């Protein structure tokens, strides 16, 4: 009795599929159009590969017996590709440089950072409630108008939570700029120092009377939406990452339109991605309509790891109609 083996076509399909899934799992050429978008959605890739493996496996039951080994080969490659994506997400769910040792941080040293791209759709009352609920000290709001930021600060002041407001406009008038709210307990900040990006990124340095206050960066580089937007996306992302790498004691937050797979965030020098440090690097933030494990983790808090110790990072539920989920990072200053 002859023994059936996978045919040439099955080997070709399995080879192409394995190459594609392996390429994405390894994150090769992540700055190229197409690859950049796919590696940002590893959860979706894993689910898609599992669905393909199941579909091919079930389809094998309907074909002639001589075709079943080829179907099994393709299904096996798809399942291995899914496992590779799951492996990357699992690694990013393992804490690295995390919580401070007992007694390392004194009471009151915690800094709470909230970042939320509001799509300029979230009402000031909703934002104020969110800030108070999280007891946030630093609030970075990409795509938020200056009017919304000012009204939010007024509501916070009424609740005994006064915050300074700094804003910077985006270059296209169709997109709201970036706002930064800072608790007066953190320090007093000078007017913004814009970064050369399109969507309103800026640096806020503390005044000389606030020696312990960190330099803050409110960030929103361009998104990789089309092939023509890729050079600007790479440039903007590099500018933001360089601000983190080269600014001692910095706390940077915002919608970075990039994941840890992308070139901008692969080499951060002394900076830490707080989500990755505490084992939350697989939790996605966009789109807010998708489950967090299937969404792209593009909203970040980055800090100078020589100065700040990550304690926790949370991805909050969808809020106020924005297509992003808010994120909250808790930090403590390292002992000298």
UniProtKB/TrEMBL annotation:
| A single MF term (Gene Ontology) | catalytic activity
Lineage, broadest ranks: Bacteria, Bacillati, Actinomycetota, Actinomycetes, Micrococcales
Can you name the source organism?
Cellulomonas soli
Keywords tagged on the record? Membrane, Transmembrane, Transmembrane helix
Task: Please verify whether the record's keywords include Glycoprotein.
Answer: no
Q: Which InterPro entries does the record match to this protein? A: Endo/exonu/phosph_ase_sf, Endo/exonuclease/phosphatase
What domain of life does the UniProt record list for this protein's source?
A: Bacteria
Which parts of the sequence belong to the Endonuclease/exonuclease/phosphatase domain? Answer: 125-324
| Transmembrane spans | 9-33, 39-64, 71-91
Q: Name one Pfam family in it.
A: Exo_endo_phos
Query: What is the designated name of this protein?
Result: Endonuclease/exonuclease/phosphatase domain-containing protein
Q: Which residues form a coiled coil?
A: none
